[in-house]
Amino acid sequence: MKRSLSDDALPPPKRLHTLNGAVPVARALTFESALYEELILLVFSYLDWRDLCAAQVVNTTFRRVAQDQTLWKRLFLRTFRSSRLRGGKGFIGRTDGREMKPIPGRAQQPPEPKEWREWFQISYRWRTGRCTTQELIGGILEPRSGAAATSTPHHILLAGSTTIIASSEASGCPQIHCLQAAANQTLRCGSSSPHPQTFHITAIALDQSPPALSGLLRLAVFLSTGEFIIFAIHPSNPVATTRKFNHIIQRRRSGQVVQAVYHHPLLISLSDTFVLNLYDLSSDTVRHSQTLSSVSTFPPSSMILSTQAPAPAPRSLVYKLVLTYAVPIYPLHLSLGVTELLISSHASSDSMSFTPLPNTAPLTVFSTRTARALDVPQGWIDQDKLRIMKEQWGRKLLRIQATQSDGKWVVLAPGEQVASTPSNAASGPQVTTIPTISGTSAASLQLYRLFLPAVTSIASPPPKLTFNRYLEHTAGTVSSMSLADGRCVTLGKNSVSIWDLESGTSAEVALPTSMRDEGQGGTIAFDDRRIITVRGSTVHVHRFD
């Protein structure tokens, strides 16, 4: 028998039962939600860097996608045609330009990701000359006065985040300042040989070989007393910095050392009388390897030292020294010359062979090649060769201010071409400026392309030094010049000029008023992120990052 229903009210239903079922809530369709991030990334890949920066202000999704490293890598490679920041010196990966793959992959740490967006910003600032300028304060260099203000320039070296500055002023104990983020260091260069009360630093050279220890820097310092010192610098630990040894040069007839290059264990010095000395610094000892001299080369000069592995003997190391200098042209003019010297650990009797021979002196020159800007062909010449000779003859100079090379490009900076005219004793000597044409004035630098083909046989082509173009600027006479990795930087009276020799672009950076008041002269150096300028006692850092 069924129970009768109670008169009480029924509880409310938990859900509403309808025939149509639940109605979904429709989301508003917006421009941001309608596109997937993969589609936005594909669209952004067709934009240039200006539109990519403008797209970041649309919304948060666009800002996140526009900062993708893949986009900026493609823009960096397409705009600057390089896979790294340019301008650095010394050891860069492998010497043959190839990337080393880790084998096995689990045995080595993965490489650090590259900040392509930051690299693009730095490279673009180099191209446009936009930088921040800061003066180093701290009494690094003593003020100069009188003629000393424009005499011997100071010495500057850049090694990563470390800046090495050495004064060329004479003192009882010259000092070298190592400036870094951790702690600054001061190296004292005391002499161990009988010397006058004061002496000065004539040249410094930084080791360009791969560091054996993390952060270890080797520095060679040459003194006017005829000796050189080797320091082992630890930038992160100043207490561990040591003075390796002090060597007194026995042959004082070679003159005073004015330039040096260092690739451990090979140390090469160049004197003011154009005498090259090669030293072997292996096993923490100094051994003089060879002396070379020349009577047909004149300053100014520059040297670059690199290594290469020849194909017939891939395990034998060969050093290549490229020396640029001034060549005299009868009766009063000068031109440009370049000499390549190949130095092997075992010299060979045949200059065209790289096969090492036993019982030979290590670190000696076994092959030399020379190329000149003014090339006079032998025998009968046709009209084309005569025209080329006339063009080369028109680029001769009365004075050369500086020469620099990076192994591929050679830059020649003319000096102020003045000549004295005879006059009576009452009026005194007068100086008149010689009229110059475009390309021979101090405002026109000469750019040459250096071709050094590999010597594989006796039929290998000879080296060539081909004129490329003029580099025009408004900074007046060049006081100092630096060239590395296809980038040339010059110091003028009121500005710094920057040339990208690969792309053909140029820019200028105005100097602060304090440096303009110092007058002429000065020293300049740069790496991939900054430029260091020194004039008198003023040191400025121009940063592009």
From TrEMBL:
Residue ranges of every copy of the F-box domain listed in the record: 29-75
Positions of the UniProt region annotated as Disordered: 91-112
GO biological process: SCF-dependent proteasomal ubiquitin-dependent protein catabolic process
Cellular component terms (Gene Ontology): cytoplasm; SCF ubiquitin ligase complex
InterPro entries per record: F-box-like_dom_sf, F-box_dom
Xref: PANTHER family: F-BOX ONLY PROTEIN 48, F-BOX ONLY PROTEIN 48-RELATED
Protein name (record): F-box domain-containing protein
